[in-house]
């Protein structure tokens, strides 16, 4: 039987992005001052309070239960690999990250990784991720990785954005969508008692 176009679409991995952003679109260094201070950014740690939001944590926990792999830019991967494999506090996010398959996009073909279940995807991001997206396997989730997100968004390779929008303006810092022009459709939204909005968007 011939393959229908919709069947071909289902064979493609989906790529989703989940990131904390401020109301003015900043994604830089949400969890600590040391996370990313490029450009003299001194406001790191602005999203730490989200960890005490039970509604948000319940939604994020539901997302963690879905099967799939993770896709990282090299800088974000290095930061997470330096922290999460060494945690022993029983945090379910630690277990999830350790056991999940991880792909790391980098132009450097000589990189080697110690974090379990990590695979290098070497080359230019748009080309290599397009090939990965077309391969067999689970869907791909991106955390952080601003440079990678912008490259893939501009190339039309992102299928969904899950944005954790915090009710604050930072006025400076790296913005998630700088240089990206894209029309989006709102799929769902939830605003918690703390004023954080979890919004899911798909490119039109």
What would you note in describing this structure?
There is one protein chain. This protein has 204 residues and is of the alpha/beta class. The chain has a single domain, classed as 3-Layer(aba) Sandwich (Dihydrofolate Reductase, subunit A). Helices cover 25% and strands 24% of the residues. It contains six helices and eight strands; from the N terminus they run αβαβααββαβαβββ.
The residue ranges in which pLDDT falls below 50 over 5 or more consecutive positions are: 1-9
Structural class: alpha/beta
The biggest beta sheet is recorded as: 8 strands, mixed
- The 3D shape can be described as globular
User: How big is the Rg?
Assistant: 17 Å
The strands making up the biggest β-sheet line up spatially as 4-3-2-5-1-6-8-7
Q: What proportion of the residues is helical, as a percent range?
A: 25-40%
Based on the model shown, name its key terms.
204 residues, alpha/beta, Dihydrofolate Reductase, subunit A, 25% helix, 24% strand
Indicate the topology.
Layout: H1 5-10, E1 15-22, H2 54-64, E2 69-73, H3 74-81, H4 92-99, E3 102-106, E4 118-122, H5 125-133, E5 140-143, H6 146-154, E6 160-166, E7 184-191, E8 197-203
Parallel strand pairs: 1-5, 1-6, 2-3, 2-5, 3-4
Antiparallel strand pairs: 6-8, 7-8
């Amino acid at each position: 039987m011939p393959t229908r176009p919709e069947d071909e679409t289902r064979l493609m991995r989906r790529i989703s992005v989940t990131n904390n952003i401020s109301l003015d679109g900043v994604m830089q260094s949400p969890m600590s001052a040391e996370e990313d201070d490029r450009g003299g950014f001194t406001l790191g740690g602005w999203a730490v309070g989200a960890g005490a939001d039970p509604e948000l944590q319940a939604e994020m926990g539901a997302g963690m239960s879905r099967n799939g792999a993770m896709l990282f830019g090299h800088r974000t991967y290095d930061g997470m690999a330096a922290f999460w494999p060494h945690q022993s506090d029983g945090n379910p996010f630690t277990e999830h990250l350790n056991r999940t398959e991880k792909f790391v996009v980098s132009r450097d073909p000589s990189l080697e990784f110690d974090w379990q279940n990590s695979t290098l995807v070497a080359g230019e991001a748009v080309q290599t991720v397009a090939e990965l997206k077309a391969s067999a396997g689970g869907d791909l989730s991106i955390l952080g990785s601003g440079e990678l997100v912008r490259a893939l968004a501009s190339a039309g390779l992102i299928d969904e954005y899950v944005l954790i929008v915090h009710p604050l303006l930072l006025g400076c810092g790296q913005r998630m969508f700088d240089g990206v022009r894209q029309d989006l459709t709102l799929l769902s939204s939830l605003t918690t008692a703390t004023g954080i909005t979890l919004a899911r968007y798909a490119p039109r």
